[in-house]
Recover the amino acids of this structure.
């Protein structure tokens, strides 16, 4: 599901890795030997053969090939020595019965959108799969049959609706057409629905992933004229997973909501279309010429519409329950079997899904085969390793969420960390995750060789960040990160996790540490994202020729798993987490100041234009809405909590560095038991405002960013949205969570110090 691996990998160097000078001391010979043997068993050519097989036919939920892949993965794990099984869930997953999109009036009246992708000459997979691929479709839209005027809403984000309001254009009762980009797909129909629209069309403008970026497929990697992006539009900002079983596993006997009660299912019909079809619709629009920020790269004048051209959209779906097939494999630990290292990637796709997700899936399989080979040769991990191949990620993290909710109590008691990957490609290492693992990620990245340059993937990522910061128009954030990276004594920062892949339930609902890892930035998969053309031919030609970086991903995560499974002492460095939270607090304090200043400026602007409104009230659409004055927010509880957190983290890190090597097994076991639930202390049972499923007070997907992370989300989003009571309440709740975390660190430090 995660597109940012491919479209923003240079920027994701901001979330990266350690460089050579920050490299830890060489690992013990036994560990080095294990990792050398791991590397030797990973075969890129074999991974390519696996990818070709797994991406042979469409892999959407409920398809025959999706089930066949799960059964094949199960058989492979068993053959490599894993104790493996398939865990099945039953979820609500709609599939299309019929769809219509046509112009009924205006220029081009009578035009009907194709809603099917034609095969590409020379691409055997696209020809083979066309008959069984899902047509243009987004899951969890609201079925309906609507004829109404069209309005162009740019990316369909909040700022775009503000611009339309200033232009005096309403979308109420109309069909909006939005382009992909600038925010998560599901926000586009959700915001349209919230503004009273009756239907929604989403298209991929060539400005963002078509001929304005590169030659189109098959000459280049970009989206061809009749390609379109499928996806889910479930309101995941409320909760991911099966819409009918929020908070509980979707087992056969689970108590389910009705479809009408499910809050994450939208109410208006929605369809994705190609830019070839979108051009016809947009050419038919009248009304004001769109502002510069609304203009894409189609050879037309973009208008906003609103009164002239009308369209007819109709969607009818099969809302039957469908099966999910999660594949779970286990290598039992020899000393601490009740401590789990959990690793996952998903195997379902919108069509074949070669880049998203199967490039990550073959990396997981290569790791699993290598680890099984190590065990057969005599190695057994100290801790239990659990490998998971999820089904149903694309519709909205279905398989991972239902498994995590079903096994919540056991996972909270046993899981130490969840390591995730998704789509992968040629280029630069990136990682996001729980910041207590930041130094660990840096150490691993310093020990993995980049297949193109021969330096470590950490060094290459550092160089990419320096180049990015030197480019014209580089953001201040990028420049600051590059400057920090120039200090060889410091680790590079990893980024926070929002949503968009299978780590969400583990981190944000169960309170388990999580790390998401991948490569990208040189290989181009964005132009075929969620399309018929995300297939073996495209991936092997444009995304990762020779499967070199898919193999590098396997070597990277394989090291993480081995080191975590066999570590004698905790690998976490809690000072990194404390420093990160301190930085986030500084950000929200600045945001609070900026919002108060904005309210004052808006009031002055409206006062200065009062005479215009008195003479002509219609002038109001050209002015901003007045804001309620922002009361000062008392950050004292958070400031005290961060101060305590930094002190507790420093005390623990120093104690472990000084005395860790001398701890006996009994003390180490006590220490593990004390630290295992630590991340769970960041949860509050109240959850976030209006979305209690998300309970982590530090990391969450944003209400209006979707995949993008919001840090200190209860405070940050309340300030952004001027919910002053919520902001004050979540200053207190977040401080409570941090104080609980600090208390856990203090307890762990006492164990290390022998008290």
């Amino acid at each position: 599901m995660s597109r940012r691996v491919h479209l923003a990998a240079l920027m994701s160097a901001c979330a990266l890795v350690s460089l050579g000078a920050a490299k830890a001391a060489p690992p013990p010979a036994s560990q080095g030997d294990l990792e050398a043997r791991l590397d030797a068993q990973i075969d890129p050519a074999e991974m390519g053969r696996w990818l070709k097989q797994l991406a042979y036919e469409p892999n959407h939920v409920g398809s025959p090939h999706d089930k066949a892949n799960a059964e094949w993965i199960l058989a492979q794990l068993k053959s490599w020595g894993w104790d493996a099984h398939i865990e099945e869930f039953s979820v609500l997953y709609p599939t299309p019965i019929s769809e219509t999109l046509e112009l009924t009036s205006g220029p081009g009246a009578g035009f009907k959108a194709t809603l099917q992708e034609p095969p590409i000459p020379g691409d055997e997979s696209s020809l083979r799969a066309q008959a069984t691929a899902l047509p243009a479709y987004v899951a969890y839209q609201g079925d309906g049959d609507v004829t109404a005027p069209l309005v162009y809403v740019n990316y369909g984000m909040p700022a775009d609706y503000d611009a339309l309001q200033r232009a005096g254009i309403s979308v109420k009762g109309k069909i909006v057409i939005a382009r992909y980009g600038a925010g998560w797909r599901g926000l586009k129909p959700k915001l349209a629905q919230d503004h009273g629209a009756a239907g929604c069309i989403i298209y991929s403008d060539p400005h963002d992933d078509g001929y304005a970026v590169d030659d189109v497929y098959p000459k280049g990697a970009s989206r061809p004229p009749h390609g379109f992006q499928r996806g889910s539009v479930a309101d995941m900002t409320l909760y991911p997973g099966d819409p009918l079983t929020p908070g509980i596993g979707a087992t056969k006997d689970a108590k389910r909501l009705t479809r009408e009660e499910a809050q994450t299912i939208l109410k208006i019909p929605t369809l994705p279309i190609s830019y070839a079809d979108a051009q016809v619709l947009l050419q038919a629009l009248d009304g004001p010429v769109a502002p510069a920020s609304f203009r894409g790269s189609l050879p037309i004048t973009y208008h906003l519409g609103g009164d002239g051209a009308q369209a007819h959209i109709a969607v009818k779906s099969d809302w039957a329950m469908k099966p999910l097939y999660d594949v779970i494999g286990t290598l039992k630990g020899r000393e601490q079997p009740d401590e789990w290292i959990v690793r996952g990637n998903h195997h379902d796709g919108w069509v074949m899904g070669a880049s998203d997700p199967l490039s990550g899936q073959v990396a997981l399989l290569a790791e699993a085969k290598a680890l099984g080979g190590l065990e057969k040769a005599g190695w057994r991990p100290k801790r239990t390793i659990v490998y998971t191949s999820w089904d149903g990620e694309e519709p909205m993290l279905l398989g991972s969420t239902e498994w995590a909710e079903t096994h919540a109590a056991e996972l909270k008691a046993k899981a130490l960390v969840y390591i995730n990957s998704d789509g992968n490609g040629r280029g630069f290492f990136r990682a996001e995750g729980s910041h207590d693992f930041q130094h660990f990620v840096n150490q691993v990245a310093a020990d993995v060789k980049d297949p193109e340059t021969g330096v470590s993937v950490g060094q290459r990522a550092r160089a990419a960040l320096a180049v990015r910061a030197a480019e014209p128009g580089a953001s201040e954030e990028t420049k600051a990160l590059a400057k920090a990276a120039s200090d060889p004594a410091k680790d590079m920062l990893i980024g926070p996790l929002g949503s968009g892949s299978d780590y969400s339930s583990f981190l944000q609902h169960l309170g388990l540490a999580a790390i998401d890892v991948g490569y990208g930035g040189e290989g181009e998969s964005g132009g075929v994202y969620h399309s018929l053309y995300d297939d073996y031919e495209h991936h092997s030609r444009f995304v990762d020729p020779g499967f070199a970086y898919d193999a590098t991903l396997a070597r990277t995560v394989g090291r993480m798993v081995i080191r975590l499974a066999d570590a004698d002492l905790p690998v976490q460095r809690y000072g990194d987490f404390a420093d990160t939270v301190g930085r986030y607090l500084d950000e929200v304090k600045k945001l609070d100041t900026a919002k108060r200043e904005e309210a004052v400026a808006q009031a002055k602007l409206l006062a200065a234009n009062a005479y215009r409104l008195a003479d002509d009230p219609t002038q109001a659409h050209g002015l901003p809405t007045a804001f309620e004055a922002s009361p000062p927010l008392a950050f004292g509880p958070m400031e005290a909590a961060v101060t305590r957190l930094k002190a507790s983290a420093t005390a623990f890190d120093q104690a472990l560095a000084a005395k860790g090597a001398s701890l006996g097994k009994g003390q180490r076991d006590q220490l593990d038991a004390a630290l295992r639930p630590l991340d769970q202390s960041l949860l509050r049972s109240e959850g976030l405002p209006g979305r209690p499923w998300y309970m982590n007070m530090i990391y969450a997907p944003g209400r209006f960013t979707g995949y993008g992370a919001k840090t200190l989300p209860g405070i940050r989003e309340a300030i952004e949205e001027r919910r002053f009571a919520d902001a004050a309440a979540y200053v207190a709740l977040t401080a409570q969570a941090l104080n609980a975390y600090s208390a856990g660190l203090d307890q762990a430090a006492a164990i290390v110090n022998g008290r």
Observations:
- The chain has three domains: 27-90+321-433+499-566, 95-318, 574-752.
